[in-house]
Specification:
Low-confidence stretches: none
Shape: globular
Radius of gyration: 18 Å
Number of strands: 5
Oligomer: single chain
Mean pLDDT: 92
Number of helices: 12
Helix content: 40-55%
Strand content: 5-15%
């Protein structure tokens, strides 16, 4: 069944999206917006466990990888080509779940605004939303790659411990950096830059700009108190 874009846009009228490249501050801004503006937070990989109960190998082969992989060592030692193809396929497959989940949340919380750390593609975001409900955050490739493990969230730290535990940690880390470079390429950066959305670029100057970035996002989304 195909659902017309105008119906989906109406159902998602209270949903705000942030996408972009790694280490640009997307997760932090989603959390801060949720707190300051009394929004429902759909953070990175929200609903992941429930989603995995629904997938099957024929329809969602990339998402089903978590059911079939031997270990997280297998996850972090794939080639850059394999990893990039998996990231692209996963984002495509998760879109169905994300859209239906957001419609469910909107229906259960009428009038409540929702902020989403999303992986939806630029093309799909243009179909589902509008300029003032989407923001793109970008960071230089050097930040997205070299600072990937600077964050304290359990998932990143677990992956770091797996890499460190492998027989050749140095080679494993080098391979993982190549994986990150592939999915945070200049081509991906430029594609977001030219996608036609409100865009914020993170500068690598060591300053704490969270409050300033939050104010710009809130103004863009029309969420100022």
């Amino acid at each position: 069944m195909l659902i017309a874009d105008n119906i989906l846009r109406a159902q998602l009228a209270d949903v705000y999206f942030i996408n972009g490249t790694a280490y640009a501050g997307k997760s932090t801004m989603c959390r801060m917006l949720a707190e300051r503006c009394d929004m429902i937070l759909c953070g990175e990989n929200y609903g992941h466990e429930r989603m995995l109960t629904m997938v099957d190998v024929e329809t969602q082969p990339n998402l089903n990888y978590f059911h079939t992989m031997g270990s997280f060592a297998d996850f972090v030692t794939r080639t850059p080509e394999e990893y990039a193809a998996w990231i692209e396929g996963t984002a495509r497959e998760v879109a169905d779940f994300e859209v239906t989940e957001l419609i469910r949340l909107s229906g259960e919380n009428p009038g409540k605004k929702i902020i989403v750390d999303t992986n939806l593609s630029a093309d799909l975001l243009h179909r589902l939303s509008d300029y003032h409900r989407v923001a793109v955050m970008l960071s230089p490739q050097s930040m997205s790659v070299e600072r990937f493990f600077d964050r304290s969230d359990p998932e990143k730290q677990m992956m770091l411990s797996v890499l460190d535990s492998l027989p050749d940690p140095e080679a494993a880390h080098a391979n993982w950096r190549e994986c990150l470079k592939r999915v945070n390429s200049r081509e991906a950066y430029d594609a977001w830059l030219q996608a036609g959305f409100f865009t914020l670029i993170r500068e690598d100057n060591g300053e704490d700009t969270r409050e300033a970035v939050l104010a710009r996002l809130a103004a863009h989304f029309g969420l100022e108190n």
